[in-house]
Fold this sequence. Notes:
This protein has 7 helices and no strands. It is an all-alpha fold. Helix 1 (about 10-20) crosses helix 3, helix 3 (about 45-65) packs across helix 6 and helix 3 (about 45-65) packs across helix 7 (about 120-135).
Amino acid sequence: MGTWSTLPFGNDDAADWAYALDDTDDLQAIEQALAAVLSVGSDYLESPEATEAIAAIELLACVAGRPGDTETYTEAADAWLQRVKAKPTPELLSRAQHVLDRILGDDSELKALWQESDEYDQWLASMADLRTRLAS
């Protein structure tokens, strides 16, 4: 996994996903990223889908008025945030919580990869912060 940080945009998949936001100004890309994780059901969740969903959830928290730490490698996401005017519904925020549960649960490649790293506790703290900001 091309990862340089435990923060939501600290990996190649999330950064690539953010650059795909260039042509959007609504929450559709976020909804699609969440749906990709939920569509897996109880099957093994691959890391790329999970990292994209985490990036989407970070943006969802931002448009809900609860941004996290500023990252130096989020210029594409920051540009999207300046364009988007939509606000998330309570249902979308709830769905995002379910997606986080799925990513942090069993049969998640991303979780397994972080468990093998020395930064697992930092990643868990980052996910806990994201969950808190999403629920506030």
